[in-house]
Amino acid sequence: MHHRRRLLTLSCTPLILYAAIATAQNSANGGTTLSIVVSEAEKNYPSIRVSQEDLNASAARLSLARTAYLPRLDGLAQFNRGTRNNVFGQLLPQAVLPSMSGPVIGTNNGGSVWGSATGLLVNWQPFDFGLRHANVTAATAARDKARATGQRTVLEVAAGSADAYLTELASMSTKTAASAAVQNWETLKTSIHALVAAQLRPGADESRVDAERAAAVTQLALAEEAIETSRATMLKFAPQSGINTPTPGRLQAELPDLSAADASFAPSQNPVVAEQEATVKQNAAQFHAIERSWVPQFNLEAAGYARGTGAETNGQRLTGTNGLAPNVGNYVAGVNISFPFLDFVSIHARESEQAANLRAAKATEDLAVRTLQEQFSQALAGVKAAKTIAENTPIEVKSAQTALDQATARYKAGLAPIDDVAQAQRLLVQAQIDDSVARLNVWRAFLRLQFVRGDLQPFLDQAGR
After folding, report:
1. Which helix (H) or strand (E) element contains residue 434?
2. Which residues of 74-86 are buried (b: 16+ CB within 10 A; e: fewer)?
3. Which pLDDT score, from 0 to 100, does residue 244 have?
4. Is-contact 54 46, C-beta < 8 A?
5. Which residue has the higher pLDDT, 85 or 399?
6. Do 198 and 122 form a contact (C-beta atoms < 8 A)?
7. Which one of 132, 144, 185, 190 is separated from 361 by 20 to 30 angstroms, measured CA to CA?
8. DSSP conformation class of 71
């Protein structure tokens, strides 16, 4: 065990050093990368720690189930002082009156004597018609379910942190375009102010520019709000990344390689399905264990014990400390067989309940598979649409810029109203926003596609992890 822990520590060391180097480079560059955010979320997000502890608890329950194969060894030591009156007759099984052995002495008095006892009892069940094995199988399935739940949680946290990172980048891009729009309206206002002052344009044109600039400032404020909102979401996953702003890197400069997007989809590769499969196995094992409950119980038992007493069979009492030391020994060995005849009704009811749970678990697994197939088709359609849009937005930006240049030139020449310039400016701002967000939307669609597949590694590798 110590060697395995040492090996685990050594194998994790490069990862720790890599994370430290990446963090240092991140601070030096003045920005945080997607890899830093996802790595921090995978290491420190509370729900992942909860899943890990659930897995540890399931592993402990599995170990507990396996202890049922071991024999029991119970020890006893007892010292007492009490009366030695004994009467003839029977008592029904109960747990109130202390047991007594020995003959009836025919007297009734309050004299007391010392008594002592010590012994060991070994109890082992050689066979149980598969009950312990079924319980161990159920505990194993519960552990596998906890492991799959942990994998699902890691997948969800990684995808959530990556999506929050992309959302903040999109908000930053929107802010950049909005800031440029405000600056453009400032420049246009300067030009129009000169024309209005020279009485070459009506004063209403300058008022219209002021109104458009105010609208652009409002849009800028909303973009800043979106940045702060998305930043709060990202900090939920990776608090340490809050000291730096996200760095777009290739996320805004390039599109992901989508050549494998049309690959066949296997729902069983997603941890959600693995979790449901483990749930079905757990319920099946529990049902099997209940079926094995209404069987005879065979126990091999052996006991060795000694007793001491200060009472004689003729009614006399020994003086002093006689009876404090166990001085009369016995041993016994045998087989104890018991069968709960009337438990059939309760066990049958438990079987019916567990059978319903098993059928529900199978239906839930089928639903999970169908849902993932639906989500994969939707994600694939989203990838194709996002890619088409990203390829089209540069044309939109170029055309909007040309339209703005022409509208501005015509306005300065007195051939067009200010409304044409305002409309062209708004189209350019929207085109710039669409273009900057379009590439990020392709990455987001690719992220969702890999999330449905249950493996974010292709996305993280291309995003620069």
Report:
1. helix 418-453
2. eeeeeeeeeebbe
3. 62
4. no
5. 399
6. no
7. 132
8. P
pLDDT of residue 359: 95
- Report the predicted TM-score, pTM, of the whole model to 2 decimal places: 0.75
Indicate whether 246 pLDDT > 80: no
What are the tokens at 57? 């608890």
Q: At what angle do helices 46-66 and 34-44 cross, to 10 degrees?
A: 40
| pLDDT winner (highest mean) among 179-183, 427-431, 447-451 | 447-451
Q: What is the pLDDT of residues 80-102, one digit of tens each?
A: 988 888 888 888 888 888 888 88
231 token code pair: 């930043």
CATH class for the region spanning 131-286+347-463: mainly alpha
Q: How many CB atoms lie within 10 A of CB 449?
A: 23
Answer yes or no: are the C-beta atoms of 465 and 18 closer than 8 Å.
Answer: no
Domain ranges of the chain: 131-286+347-463
Query: What is the Cα 203 distance to its own chain's centre?
Result: 62
DSSP secondary-structure letter at 85? -
CA–CA separation, 105 vs 342, rounded Å? Answer: 41
**Per-residue pLDDT band at 219 (split at 50, 70, 90):** confident
Burial per residue of 24-58, b for 16 or more beta-carbon CB atoms within 10 angstroms, e otherwise = eebeeeebbbbbbbbbbbbeebeebeebeebbeeb
76, 174 Cβ separation under 8 angstroms: no
**Average pLDDT of every residue of the chain:** 83
Q: Specify which residues 297 forms β-bridges with.
A: 338
Element (H, E) at 221: helix 203-237
More confident residue, 106 or 214: 214
Rounded mean pLDDT, 293-315: 88
What pLDDT sits at residue 120? 94
Rounded to 10 degrees, the C-alpha dihedral 132/136/141/146 comes to 130
User: What are the C-alpha distances in Å from 312 to residues 103, 108, 110, 205, 317?
Assistant: 10, 15, 15, 124, 6
- Burial of 406 (C-beta count, 10 Å sphere; 0-12/13-18/19+): middle
